[in-house]
């Protein structure tokens, strides 16, 4: 997609210095409030899990079962979004707590942490929105950018997106296998031995825990507990899918070529992160449940800063965008999600052109102040 703004080399250098200074200021300020925050989130997450599993043991009483499913869903969302994702980015390594260390943490999902950190932390965050390099563009199954060459397979785009949403944790698990490259012959099956070993171990362990162990512990409530665990995983999958897709694929989010990003400077890397992501507006609770990935622009700029800091620095990032005439892509969940859905359907069909002007209210294009 054509870029909405171009900066001079001097402006790129200044942009890099401003954002580096902002990052350093936040790092220097990390302390007890950040420590207390993540410990509180962990406490709430564990509390919701205990309450959810306990209430589901009363499966003979529907209101208790529903409350249990809701609590377990919240637990899995917090573990996945605000704890797991952020801890594995190294956001809390400075605390020197082994339970919150990026190298040791394992989350409550079938995707192995080590595989995910390679495909997400390294590939996606290094090569954000670079066509042919960032494998999160379409996740190997979807056409999410008009520059992706169309073929009849993509007629199923909406169906693939729906299935990915429902089985999102499994899609994340399989992502590092790079099945599309295996099918094309770019990657050999033998090269995936380590990836497959970790997938098998984590996937089996998680499946037994969710669908055998905890249902068995509930005795005569086995099937109602099983249904509750399936439902909680489904809720978490749908929520994670919605937040992640709204942060990466709404109208106005831009992609880049390898040629454009060759010999990229620090300022140009920041520029790409800002134009290649989008935010979602919402309440403080909404931001916590999204893992603060509702501030995807700030996250792509500073993936290793504690996510609770993103709402604090967002006004400064927005002001920097205004200063340099860059778009600050933000909007409500409904608007961003609708934009993503339209793109999924539109790109199922051949053709490369996208609307040059995003839907009103979805993207705010800020111009330099006079």
Automatic annotation (TrEMBL):
Keywords: Membrane, Transmembrane, Transmembrane helix. The keyword Magnesium does not apply. The chain crosses the membrane at residues 153-172. Signal peptide: none annotated. Residues 351-370 are annotated as: Disordered. It holds the Pfam family FA_desaturase. Residues 64-330 form the Fatty acid desaturase domain. GO terms for biological process: lipid metabolic process. GO terms for cellular component: membrane. GO terms for molecular function: oxidoreductase activity, acting on paired donors, with oxidation of a pair of donors resulting in the reduction of molecular oxygen to two molecules of water. This is Linoleoyl-CoA desaturase.
């Amino acid at each position: 997609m054509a870029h909405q703004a171009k900066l001079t080399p001097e402006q790129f250098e200044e942009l890099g210095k401003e954002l580096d200074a902002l990052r350093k200021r936040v790092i220097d300020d990390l302390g007890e409030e950040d420590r207390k925050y993540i410990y509180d989130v962990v406490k709430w997450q564990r509390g919701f899990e205990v309450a959810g599993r306990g209430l589901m043991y009363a499966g003979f009483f529907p209101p208790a079962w529903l409350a249990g499913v809701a609590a377990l869903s919240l637990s899995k969302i917090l573990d996945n979004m605000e704890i797991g994702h952020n801890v594995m980015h190294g956001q809390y390594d400075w605390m020197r707590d082994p339970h919150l260390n990026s190298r040791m943490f394992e989350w409550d999902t079938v995707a192995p942490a080590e595989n995910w950190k390679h495909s997400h932390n390294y590939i996606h965050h290094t090569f954000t929105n670079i066509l042919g390099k960032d494998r999160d563009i379409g996740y190997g199954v979807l056409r999410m950018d008009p520059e992706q060459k169309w073929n009849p397979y993509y007629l199923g785009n909406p169906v693939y997106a729906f299935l990915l949403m429902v089985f999102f944790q499994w899609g994340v698990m399989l992502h590092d296998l790079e099945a599309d490259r295996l099918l094309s012959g770019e990657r050999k099956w033998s090269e995936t031995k380590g990836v497959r070993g970790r997938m098998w171990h984590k996937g089996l362990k998680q499946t037994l825990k969710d669908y055998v162990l905890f249902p068995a512990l509930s005795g005569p409530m086995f099937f109602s507990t099983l249904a509750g665990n399936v439902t909680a995983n489904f809720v978490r999958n749908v929520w994670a899918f919605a937040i992640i897709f709204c942060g990466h694929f709404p109208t106005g989010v831009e992609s880049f070529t390898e040629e454009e990003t060759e010999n990229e400077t620090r300022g140009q890397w920041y520029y790409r992160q800002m134009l290649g992501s989008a935010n979602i507006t919402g309440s403080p609770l909404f931001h916590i449940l999204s893992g603060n990935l509702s501030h995807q622009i700030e996250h792509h700029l500073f993936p290793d800063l504690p996510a609770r800091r993103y709402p604090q620095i967002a006004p400064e990032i927005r002001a920097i965008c205004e200063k340099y005439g860059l778009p600050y892509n933000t909007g409500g969940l409904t608007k961003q999600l609708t934009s993503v859905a339209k793109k999924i359907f539109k790109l199922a069909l051949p053709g490369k052109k996208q609307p040059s002007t995003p839907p009103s209210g979805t993207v705010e294009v800020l111009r330099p102040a006079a």
